[in-house]
Design goal:
By secondary structure, the protein is mostly helical. It has one domain (27-134): Tetratricopeptide repeat domain (Serine Threonine Protein Phosphatase 5, Tetratricopeptide repeat, Alpha Horseshoe), CATH 1.25.40. It is 77% helix and 0% strand. The chain contains seven helices and no strands. It has helices at residues 5-24, 28-42, 46-59, 64-77, 85-101, 106-120, 122-130. Helix 2 (28-42) runs parallel beside helix 4, helix 3 (46-59) runs antiparallel to helix 4 (64-77) and helix 6 crosses helix 7 (122-130).
Length: 135
């Protein structure tokens, strides 16, 4: 039967399964980075939001929410009425990654639509940027 017996094997199995479950959960560092990024976004501190969301992506690149956070930070960092095309392209890239990770994510879909509206009609974006209800 071996040195551990049946009870030892069950304990070992439970231990291994608990490691697998923990591996699927976001790390504390990831959670902190996301909270910091979301807080910075809510305070319109876009440079801090960009840094925090990028850190969250480094910790968990499969998180659609982290990519959306970064896209929103990029979008917010562009000046109203005269968006920076390079920054908007970065935002679009993050939204695209989020859509690939979570195709039914409403926020990622909305971001893609906003990007499309900006490229097709800057007048629409001017209204969007000045609307206080956008956030």
């Amino acid at each position: 039967m071996g040195p551990f017996g049946t009870c030892g094997k069950i304990v070992f199995l439970v231990f291994c399964l608990s490691l697998g479950v923990k591996a699927g959960l976001p790390s504390d560092d990831f959670t902190r980075a996301m909270r910091k990024g979301e807080k910075a976004l809510s305070q319109a501190n876009y440079s801090e939001a960009i840094a925090s969301c990028q850190k969250a992506i480094q910790l968990n690149g499969r998180s659609a929410d982290a990519h959306i956070c970064l896209a929103n930070a990029f979008m917010g960092s562009t000046p109203p009425g005269m968006p920076d095309i390079e920054v908007l392209q970065q935002a679009r890239k993050e939204e695209q990654i989020a859509l690939e990770l979570a195709p039914n994510n409403a926020e990622a879909l909305a971001g893609a639509i906003i990007y499309l509206a900006n490229t097709l009609n800057p007048a629409i974006m001017k209204v969007w940027w000045t609307d206080p209800r956008r956030c």
